[in-house]
Specification:
This protein is an alpha/beta fold. It has twelve helices and 13 strands. It folds into two domains: about 5-100 and about 160-290, Glutaconate Coenzyme A-transferase; about 115-155, no CATH class.
């Protein structure tokens, strides 16, 4: 059964106040077209979770769509900080639960396995654990190993309402492949109530069945499939296209003040009707073709 739909319809299925898990990592495989559509539709009060905070999260926070972020730190890689995430934490307008990236993945893993909690060593005696206990003692606890008597930190599962995953390839049923790093995506989608897949390319299910072991996201977990070439622009999708350094630099400059960021939103989010108009505004096929991945290197 086909689950193909438009980006607008997929985003409209997410009510304000939802917990959305994002698949991106810094400036790689970010849900950028998704984030722009969320902003255009005025969806707000979101909780977002992400193993490593990325450009999509920063854009959503800067536009006022996010109330809470659960993440393991993050950046725009060599281009700098997550300006709006950091600013929101500093001025108190954004509620932040800061973990290590591994412990966020463990929380998704607990959710994917249906566990009430999961023990972990990586936060033991860390400032992160201390800060989490001070911030909200209900999110972190200690348990005694019944076999050895050792003390362990224990974390609650993460159970997002919806996971949004940017992938290079999927079929109309939502069976999706991910080339290169998968990070926490497999655990993320299994912990979520449902998943929206945004794919660079849609292929027949017969292609998927030829190599079923490559399927990271099974269609049974997916509610919507969106075919959206360059949906991660200006970030990268391995084996599809590289990141757009010029545009990311322009974004970083735009985050310096509220006024310059509003101008960025007016030009690239509110000033276009949809993703296709956005692609024309950033340079069209001439610019996008220059970002196409090298067939050998994959970026």
């Amino acid at each position: 059964m086909t689950k193909l739909t438009t980006l607008a319809d997929a985003v409209a299925s997410i009510p304000s106040g939802s917990h959305v898990a994002l698949s991106g990592f810094a400036i790689a495989r970010c849900n950028m077209a998704f984030a722009r559509e969320v902003i255009r539709q005025g969806i707000h009060r979101l909780t977002i979770s992400q193993c490593v905070g990325a450009m999509d999260a920063d854009l959503l926070v800067g536009a006022g769509a996010v109330e809470r972020i659960i993440y393991g730190g993050g950046s725009l890689d060599r281009f700098g900080r997550l300006a709006w995430v950091n600013r929101g934490i500093e001025d108190g307008t954004l509620i932040a639960e800061e973990y290590s990236s591994l412990s966020v993945t463990f929380r998704y893993l607990a959710g994917s396995l249906g566990l009430p909690f999961i023990p972990i060593r990586s936060l033991t005696a860390s400032d992160l654990a201390k800060r989490l206990q001070e911030q909200d003692a209900s999110q972190i606890a200690t348990i005694t190993d019944p076999f050895t008597g050792d003390q362990w930190l224990a974390l609650k599962p993460l159970l997002p309402d919806v996971s949004v995953v940017q992938v290079p390839l999927a079929d109309a049923e939502g069976n999706a492949w991910i080339f290169g790093p998968r990070w926490d995506n497999a655990e993320q989608v299994r912990a979520s109530k449902r998943t929206i897949v945004i794919a660079e390319e849609i292929v027949p299910t017969e292609i998927i069945r030829r190599e079923p072991e490559r399927t990271v996201i099974p269609g049974l977990l997916v509610s919507h499939v969106v075919h959206l070439p360059f949906g991660a622009h200006p970030t990268s999708v391995y084996r599809c296209y590289d990141y757009d350094a010029e545009h990311i630099k322009a974004y970083v400059q735009a985050t310096e003040t509220r006024e310059s960021f509003r101008a960025y939103l007016d030009r690239y989010v509110y000033g276009v009707n949809d993703h296709w108009e956005y692609l024309e505004r950033v340079g069209g096929m001439k610019r996008l073709s220059a970002l196409r991945a090298d067939a050998l290197l994959g970026y």
